[in-house]
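Backbone-to-sequence.
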């Protein structure tokens, strides 16, 4: 019985550690600071990104928006177009026709195809590769950042950002914001971040599914192992 108790305690600890790590990640860092009207510095809380890796429709919409609005400047060097149509169930023809804006080879990675030095000269900063961005900054940070652009005539591109003050990235979603309802605009940005979260860790959802079955298998295995253990030791004592 002692062995069983130990095993159960061990499993409990593993689950607790896992949950603890997720909570710690979520609360890490804020989303910047801003000045209130009376000149005080206030802390901007991150908005919660609607990331759901089981929602394929949202990730597909995000992929399409990402290719139209972001891939012209940002690369995503760890993602191949072929992975997009295989994993996201997007027909190959549609990927080739609508999503492959930067190349004509499905085995290629998403690559802005613009000389980084030129980009640096244009924007003052190089648009970073976004393959792992949500892992680097967190889903909520990226979501809040994309929502935090505002018009600011003093900036070269006429826009600024609360999360990254004096940002070098233009407000590329400005037209979308003008032409959609508030809900639709937030949903679109949520879809982009959902796609970025998938891109940063395409195996994340699958891994959780496997994990569930593995734990279930181990728990089921516990019963015969426990009975066997009892059987082996019954004559010894
Ligand atoms: C016109 C070029 C351009 C387009 C289009 C563009 N970006 Fe950017 N982006 C930049 C530049 C330049 C920076 C660097 C900003 C800086 O360091 O000040 C940047 C920075 C970022 C960052 C912050 C990186 C970090 O961790 O500091 C994120 C996130 C980002 N972009 C996401 C996006 C997304 C999502 C889209 C599509 C909706 C997009 N960008 C479209 C030029 C662009």
């Amino acid at each position: 019985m002692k062995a069983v108790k130990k095993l159960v305690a061990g499993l409990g600890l593993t689950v607790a550690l896992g949950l603890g790590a997720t909570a710690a990640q979520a609360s890490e860092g804020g989303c910047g600071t801003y000045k209130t009207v009376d000149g005080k510095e206030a802390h901007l809380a991150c908005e919660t990104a609607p990331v759901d890796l089981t929602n394929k429709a949202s990730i597909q919409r995000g992929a399409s928006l990402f290719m139209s609005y972001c891939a012209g400047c940002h690369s995503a060097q760890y993602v191949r177009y072929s992975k997009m149509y295989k994993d996201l169930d997007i027909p190959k023809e549609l990927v080739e026709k609508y999503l492959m804006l930067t190349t004509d080879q499905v085995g290629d990675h998403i690559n802005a195809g613009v000389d980084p030095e030129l980009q640096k000269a244009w924007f003052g900063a190089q648009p970073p590769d976004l393959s792992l961005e949500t892992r680097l900054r967190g889903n909520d940070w990226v979501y809040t950042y994309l929502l935090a652009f505002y018009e600011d005539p003093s900036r070269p591109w006429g826009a600024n950002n609360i999360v990254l003050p004096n940002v070098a990235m233009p407000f590329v979603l400005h037209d979308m914001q003008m032409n959609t309802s508030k809900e639709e605009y937030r949903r679109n940005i949520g879809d982009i971040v959902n796609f970025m979260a998938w891109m940063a860790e395409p195996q994340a959802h699958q891994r959780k599914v496997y994990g569930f079955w593995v734990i279930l298998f181990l728990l089921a295995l516990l019963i015969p192992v426990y009975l066997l253990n009892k059987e082996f030791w019954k004559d010894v004592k």
